[in-house]
Every structure is written in structure tokens, then in C-alpha cells.
UniProtKB/TrEMBL annotation, chain A:
Pfam family, one: BPD_transp_2
Superkingdom as given in the UniProt entry: Bacteria
Membrane topology (UniProt): Multi-pass membrane protein
Descriptive protein name: ABC transporter permease
Keyword DNA repair in annotation: no
Taxonomic path: Bacteria, Pseudomonadati, Pseudomonadota, Alphaproteobacteria, Hyphomicrobiales
Chain segments annotated as transmembrane: 12-32, 44-60, 91-113, 120-139, 159-182, 213-236, 248-279, 291-311
Species of provenance: Roseibium sediminicola
Locations listed in the record: Cell membrane
Chief subcellular location: membrane
Annotated keywords: Cell membrane, Membrane, Transmembrane, Transmembrane helix
UniProt cross-references to InterPro entries, sorted A to Z: ABC_transp_permease
UniProtKB/TrEMBL annotation, chain B:
Keyword rRNA-binding: no
Lineage: Bacteria, Pseudomonadati, Pseudomonadota, Alphaproteobacteria, Hyphomicrobiales
UniProt keyword annotation of Transmembrane helix present: yes
Main location: membrane
Function per UniProt: Part of the ABC transporter complex LsrABCD involved in autoinducer 2 (AI-2) import. Probably responsible for the translocation of the substrate across the membrane.
CDD domains with a match to the protein in the record: TM_PBP1_transp_AraH_like
Membrane topology: Multi-pass membrane protein
Name of the protein described by the UniProt record: Autoinducer 2 import system permease protein LsrD
Assembly information from the UniProt record: The complex is composed of two ATP-binding proteins (LsrA), two transmembrane proteins (LsrC and LsrD) and a solute-binding protein (LsrB).
Cellular localization per UniProt: Cell membrane
Residue spans crossing the bilayer: 32-53, 111-131, 138-156, 176-199, 230-253, 259-279, 309-329
UniProt keyword annotations, A-Z: Cell inner membrane, Cell membrane, Membrane, Transmembrane, Transmembrane helix, Transport
Amino acid sequence: MILSFLKSREAILAGAILVLVVAIASRFPAFVTPANLANVFNDTAPLIILALGQMVVILTRCIDLSVAANLALTGMVVAMLNTAMPGLPVPLILLLAVSLGALMGLLNGLLVWRLDIPPIVVTLGTMTIYRGIIFVISGGEWINAHEMSDAFKAFPREVVFGLPVLSWIAIVVVLGFVVLIGRTPLGRAFFAVGGNPHAAVYTGINVGQTQCAAYVISGALAGLTGYLWVARYAVAYVDIAGGFELEVVAACVIGGISIAGGVGSVGGALLGALFLGIVKNALPVINISPFWQLAISGSAIIIAVAFNATSSRTKGRVILKKAEHAA
Amino acid sequence: MSVTAQDTGSAGRQIPDRLKSPMQRFLGSWELLLLGVAVAVFILNSFASPYFLDPWNLSDATFNFTEKAMIAFAMALLIISGEIDLSVASIIALASTAMGFAVQMGADTPMLILIGLGVGLACGAFNGALVTGLGLPSIVVTIGTMSLFRGISYIVLGDKAYTGYPSDFAFFGQGYVWWVISFEFLLFALVAIVFAVILHRTNFGRAVYVIGNNPVGALFSGIRVTRVKFALFLLTGLMSGVAAICLTSRLGATRPSIAFGWELEVVTMVVLGGVSILGGSGSIPGVVIAAFVMGMVTFGFGLLNVPGIVMSIFIGLLLIGVIALPRIARRILAKRKA
């Protein structure tokens, strides 16, 4: 049991993160103070939330490239609502953000489920459409801090039990996913659909519906993050979180979630996101220009996927050895 | 993606007893439909703006698509073979950065061309080696190299820009060969013909289709699958290098954000051109017409002062619409039959 855990991707990734943190700490001890680590976690919280949503989509052999555009559109809508109606209570805004995000996810899901359009095409398309809609509704204008109400901006920064609400939300989402993936029929269905869609059909799972559910989850989380993002940075404009979808996919790939579907874990997605978050936060500390970040996350994706491929190749169960030889 | 139990039934296995005549096939083809769209867009545009039908304006409009289309031809082959390359725009950035760097070192125009093409080829080889050598999924690899290649540009350039390209280098993006025919448009036409011949008239082209339809079958019928795929990645890299030369020459400057987001437009162009994103089918003439449609739409909207980002809504709708509409139509037809 312990041995198999040590060999798992999660353990290797956790080890890599530990080595990374220790290496940074040996030169810059201030990086590992609890306050700073909490800071890094808080900074990575949006990535963690989105990576978990992306994980279930990738598990079902799909991909959601529209998450960042969904985030930006929801963020813009709630920011505009807040400017128009400053009295709107935060719980209602949260509810609106989650529903709007889920609706956009549902649109992705329906196009994939009902019309059989390849997921990458659907989400490439909706990505540009959602971004464009932000421009249309906002007229290209920014919504700045002074236009938002104080309660709207304060919510994600509110400190409860030593951590900001943003961090707590990420923790709750992680725990929610542990239950969803490990303890519910839907969680099993995600793996079944990704592992073998034909077999899933014969076990009574509706493949398209499951994929649609994954998109709705991913969309809802993108909507939630949209509000948190806009409130935290106290600004909304067309290009917020531009290119963030790739970082989210990168976190999943680094976390060992197979792009071919059916393989992945909550821990993996969490660690993948943390890895990217730590790298991002460590660069300025160790005095490397932030311009390095893009190349580093690119290399991390390539190394992670190469590593995953070689480690899964040796592990595959050979159940048809004779047939393979005959071929 | 939804799989139903009927998939394994006889629905997809009916083979007609005779082929349709070439004329019949042409009339029912995607390319003809697209051509109709192109003509409609053209007519609509000329009604919408009095400036549209000016030959110089039309010539300017071709710059909207020539560079992207040159990559789209190579991308079409790659997608037909069942792979994809999302790093093309980043290859442009890296090749352009390398050329800008060479200019600072005092390179002349022929040297710049060599560097642009060389960097493109090297990036293509890198993608190809990862995909075919290590057997990794191309979509993940090229999402990775997309960050990596552009990331290197950012490391080299940061927030600066390279300018000061030699004056004779400007010909590739700004020169005219004859009257309103720009050098880029001529190059686009030549490249289109070369790719049409490669895909539709050579063994290599047949191999691309076979691999896309059935990679295992292709292997067993003696096609060197990995070698063909590697060649296609090289080709895509090379065409990205060509596009980098044209774009850099046209802009006269290199920033790390050059050609940002082009990979999506290139893929849209290919899919709009009737190439199946799942591989195995598609044609170069289709991509050529798609390039014209996208160029005309962008140009027409531009004349009407529609901002670029609103055009991107249209491109997104086009991408989903062109795939969704035939499927909806087929479903309605099937229901009527039943």
C-alpha cells in the first residue's frame, strides 16, 4: 500500500514540489514562512478551482478551452450588475455567477452531447464568442475599483480563521471534489466514460449526458472564479485571465490527468496547480524576470506529459499477450 | 462524442452499389456550399460599403488571410492525418524573434530568410520528434510548445521590440509583383497549388488520408506512419517560418506578442474548409475558399468599423455553425425518412 503510494504520480509530483520549495528556501528563507505560503496558496486558489473543473471534463475525453473566457464574461456581468445595483447582496451575486457560468458550460455540453461536435472545436468557438460578448456588453470599457461596492470587493479578501475567504473556497471545492469523484455515481461515471465509452454505454451510463454534466461543473466553477477574480483584483475588462485556459490545462497535465481520458485524481490536479502557482510566485523572489514564466510552464507541460507517457507504458496490464504476438 | 449502442449496428456499414458521378459529388460537396457563401459574402460586402469593390482595397484585404492560409494548408494535412499543431503562432513569434536578433547582429536579407525558415523547421522537428518519437498526444505537446516557443520570445525580448529590418527585406510583406497583385498573394497562390498537388496527386497525399482514417491499417499496408507524421510536423513548422517572414516583413517589427491567437484562426480556417477535425477527410480547394471567406468577412466588417473582437464572435459562430448545421440538417432528413 505504502509502496504503491510512493510510486504514484501524486507522490512523485509532491516530491518535486517539496524539492522545489526546499531549493528556494535554502537561498530565500522568507519564501517558506507560513504567511508567505498562505499567500502563495491564496494566489493559486483560482487555478486550483478551475483545474478541478477541467479535470472532470478531461476525464470524460473532452477539453474545455472556454474556461478563461467564461470566467471573464461572468466577472464582467457581475461587476456591471454591481455598478448598476450596488445594494445587491454578495450571496446573490455568488449564486448568479455560478448559475451564469453553469449556463455557459451547459451550452458547451449540449453542443458536444446533442450535436456530436468535437469538444475542442466547440470550446475554441465558445471561447472566442464569450470573449467577444464581453466586449459587446461592456463596450470595451474597464470597470474600476471605485465603481464597485465595498462589500463586493471585500468578500474574497475577508480573513476567516487566518485565511482569506478565497482560500477557504478553494479548500471547500477540493473537499467537494474528493466526495464527488470518490463517493458518487457521477464521479465513477466520469472515469467510466473516459476509460471506455462503449463499455460505459453497456453499463447504462449515458456518455453524452455525463460529458455535459462535466461541462456544467467546469462552467459553474469558472463562473464562481469569475466573481472571485474580479472582486479580488477590483477590476474587470475584456482581457482578464487571457490565456488562462492553457495554464489550467497545464495544471491538469502536470497533475497526471491523461488527456486521453479516464485517468486522473483530485490530488493530482491540486498538486499540478500548486506546482505552477509556486513557480509563478517564486520567480520574482529568486530574481528571475516574470517573462520566464511562460517558457517554464511550457517546459513543465512537455516534461510532465513525456513522463506520464513513459511511466504508464510500462505499467499497462498485458492480458492479450498471445494475440499481440500473433499480430 | 456521444456513443450509443446502435453505433455498432449496421447504420454506418451500407456501401452503395455504385459511385456517384463526379458531377453529382461536386454538386453535393462542401466546397460548393462554401463557394456559395464566399460569393454571398462578396455581394453583401459590395452592397454594404462603397469602398469594397476598389481593386487596391481588395488587394489590401488579401493580407488578412494570406499568411494564415499558408499555415492552414500545412495544418490541413496535419489534421487530415489525425494530428494537430497549436504551436504555429508561437513558432511565428520565435522565428520572428530570431530574425530580429539576427538583424541586431548585422545579418542581411538572404540570411534572415534562412534563419526564419530554419527556426520554423527546427520547431516543427521538435514537435514532430515529441509526437512521433515518444508517442505523445499532439494536442498536449503543442499546447506545451505553444507556451515554450512564445515563452522564449518573451525571455529574449521582454517588453521590448526588434526593429530596423533592412529595406529590401520589406519586399516579402509589402512588395507588389504586378499591379495590385502582392508578392504575398502570389506566394499564397503558389503554395496552394503545391499543397493541392501534394495532397491530391501524390502517394504521400494518399498516405496522409490513409493514416487519418486508420493508422493501424496504414501501418499494416506498408506506410511509414511515423515518418509521414514527422514530415507533416516539419512542413507545418516550415510554413509557419514562411508566414513569420511575411508577417515580420509586413509589420517591420517584432514583439513577443506577434501573431497572438493565430493558431485558433488557422484551425478555424481549416475546419471551415471542410477538413474533419477527427481526421481522414478534407481538401485543399476547400481551405482556399475558406481563407477567402474569412478574409472577406474580416475585411467587410473592418470597412463597416466593426471592432476586431466582435469579428471574433462571428468567427466563433462560423466555426461551430459550419459543423453544427450539416449535422442538424442530416438529423432532420433522417427523421423525415423514418
